[in-house]
Amino acid sequence: MSRxxxxxxxxxxxxxxxxxxxxxxxxxxxxxxxxxxxxxxxxTTLLPAETLVPSMPKMRKFRSPEVVQVLDRVRFELADxxxxxxxxxxxxxxxxxxxxxxxxxxxxxxxxxxALTELSNxxxxxxxxxxxxxxxxxxxxxxxxVYWDFESFLSEVNVALDLLARVVGPAFAxxxxxxxxxxxxxxxxxPLLVEFRRAQTRWVQRMKDYRDCFIHxxxxxxxxxxxxxxxxxxxEFRAKLPNNPNVxxxxxxxxxxxVELLRYAITVHRNMAAxxxxxxxxxxxxYSAGEFPVRRDHLFFVGARS
Length: 306
Fold this sequence. Notes:
The chain is of the alpha+beta class. The chain is 52% helix and 7% strand. The protein has helices at residues 3-13, 32-38, 66-78, 85-127, 141-167, 180-184, 191-216, 261-288, and strands at 25-28, 135-139, 226-231, 234-239.
């Protein structure tokens, strides 16, 4: 359909006009005439994106996670001792599997941030110098990408946690489960077990609830949009995220201004980075005290299926 016919259809039906920048559906809570008048000024001044989209957390860039760095130092020091040969190979391989998924989480979070910055700039262009409209929403491929990448981000963090459970296996005399949840159920008061359980209670279980809901049951919605809304305190840009993921049903989801997709993802990223540092510090202390590694062999093929 031509742009002229799209506009004509919008006038006749009273529907929202097509988006001026992308051609995608853009909901603007105002009349078509008001929309047509203001669209002439789209490329004037933008609301600053930094006031709408939170900043990215500190990223590692090309540095390895702390756990990988600590285990590299340990294996280098033990490399000349034959009794540690299997451990040294394990300490090289599996921390790199862990790093692969930590890097994946960084990549997905960056992708979410870039997409939301693009969308916020687009909606800000509609909102600037407009005191008649209180809400703008946009649903297009970029908005869908936000949710695709968010689900992938949760999956990468989830996999990284399971791999970290495997990486710390040599700290225990008996074979430990290569699963975050199962390791948390392991009996004992080892500092690593205490740290894993603390993380599970503080933030991991909530993250897994979101991941399980979106991967196994339902997406957030079937009409995904991002929204720029005017409140008495100013404009607020958000990608919605339910606050009750365990209901696992679109019709049952509830929403709150306190819960927003990008802010939640950034919180998860910061928690994971802090958890990585604490686990690395425990491994380093145990190694310095001569208490790591406890198990030196039978480290591979854990969890293999016949």
